[in-house]
Structure formats: C-alpha cells, structure tokens
Amino acid sequence: MNLVTPRQRQEWLSRAEDYADIFLNRTKYILPHVARFCLVSTFIEDGIRMWMQWGDQRDYIMKSWNVGWFLGTLFVITNLLGQLIPCGMILARRKTDIACAVLVFIIAFQSIAYRIIMEPRFLFRSCSLVGGLLLLMVENRKEARTLFAGVPTMHNNAPKNYMQFAGRILLVIMFLTIVRYELSFTSVIQNLIGGICMLFVAVGFKTKLSALFMVVYLTFVNFYSNSFWLVPNHRALHDFLKYDFFQTMSVIGGLLYVVALGPGGVSVDARKKEW
Asked: Which of 42-56, 135-149, 162-176 has the lowest mean pLDDT?
C-alpha cells in the first residue's frame, strides 16, 4: 500500500524548495564569502602546517627524493607561499583566476612530491578540490552578452556553463571517499540518500536543494567523523583527521557555490526551463 501519493511528494518537494529559496534570499550577501572561505580553508591549513612543521617536511622530501637541503627547503617555501598568497588573493577577490591556477598547480605538485598521485582517496579528494576551484573561477566571470538583442541563449556563455558543469562533476567525486562499505541499515540509507543527492547535483536536477542538503549532511558527518580536536596532538591520527576535516570543508565550500550560483546552462534544471 502506497502511503504517500505522488501529489503529496510533489507538495513536500515544492515546500522544501521554497524554504531553500528563503534561505538563499536571506544569505545571498554572505553565502559567497562563506563559500570562498570554506573552499580555501584546506590550503590555509596546509600552508600553516608547512610553517609549523618546516623541519619535518624538509627532511621528508630530502629522504624521500634523496635531495639536498636546498631543494628540500625550496619545496617547503613553494608550498607555504604557493598556498597562503593565492588564498589571500581569493579572499580579497584579486586576480582570482591566477590564484586558482596556482592552487591547482600546488595540488599536482604535492601529489607528485608525496608520491600519492595514484592513491584513490587522495585522487578523488584532489578532483573535488579542482572542481571547487572551477566553480570559484565561474563566480569571477561575467555573463557574456548576446550578439542579437533580446535573444539570449545558453551558447553565449558556453565556456562558463561548461566550466560550471565540470566543476559539479568533479565536486561530487568526493562522495566516493565517505561511502560506508557496511551492510547495516543505517549505512545503506545514508549511502543511498547521499548518492542520489550527489547524482542530482552532478546532472543539475533540483540542484540548489540537493546541494544544500549535502552541505548540511557533509557538515554533520565532518564534525562527527573528523573531530581531530579530541585526539592528542602527538598522535598521527590527529593529523589525518585534521587533513580530512579541512578537505571536506573545502568540498562544502564548493557545494555552497553550487547553491549560490545555481546549476548553470548545462543542467537538467536549465533544460526544463527551455521545455
């Protein structure tokens, strides 16, 4: 027996979208700033870590790559300045495209230096960070003007729309790293709901509502699963949880950009408006 009719489901969904729109209207001036800060938080944390663990990072590179003191120190300086300076530029909204390009370089540079480029968890998280940076670059671009007055089309902003689409696809890859491979009822429900919402974000269907739900969901999971402040500083687990916490915060920042910017032209939502 079906306890919920299609009409009731549609009413609930419409009500949820109304609440999401109210939230967006009340936070439209703050949301981009919060999204920007969350997105670069992992780079700020890593840059500070380079300063706090200068000697350890330098020695690791010297031993791992069998290089001298100069190259080991150069690695630390590159990561320190190559993250903190672009983050400052992004927060100040100065030369955002250049700053994002530098951060993408740092992601690739670290993956090679630490020899973890083929480690699936790191690879998925890195893709999500790149997706978030793409969305940040989208926010910095202005709408293109149509050549024909009164005839706006999606194709006039094709580069921006495709960047937005690529950013959404890369962003949702991060969900694969938090899937719980257990057969318990709770794990199955969490994976199912989260997977459906991430799929909706990727294809651009009910995009803002799905992304907003994932922001709330990932925030809860992040504070519950990656509570590094409860682990003593001298334990290796502290650094692992701290790394995961700020990586997830960056993905949350990317999802907040999806909420703020909408799905873009390459999405189911945009096609529905044309229909």
From this structure: 135-149
- DSSP label at 17? H
Total Cβ atoms within 10 A of residue 16: 14
Look at the block and give the residue holding tokens 């670290």.
110
Q: CB under 8 Å to 252, separation ≥6 — which residues?
A: 38, 215, 218, 219, 222
Q: How far is CA 257 from CA 46, 95, 228, 247, in A?
A: 22, 18, 26, 16
For residue 73 the two structure tokens come to 């120190």
> At what angle are helices 236-261 and 158-172 packed, to 10 degrees?
150
CB 197, CB 213: distance < 8 Å: yes
The answer to whether 139 and 261 have CB atoms below 8 angstroms apart is yes
Q: Is 9 exposed, middle or buried (0-12, 13-18, 19+ CB in 10 A)?
A: exposed
Residue reference for tokens 């949350």? 252
Rounded to whole angstroms, the Cα distance separating 144 from 159 reads 10
pTM of the model: 0.85
Measured CA to CA in angstroms, residue 234 lies from 46, 63, 231, 240, 242 at distances of 17, 22, 9, 12, 13
pLDDT tens sequence across 221-256 = 889 888 999 999 888 889 888 988 998 899 899 899
How many residues are listed for the chain in this entry? 275
Nearest to 268 by CA among 215, 200, 197, 211: 200
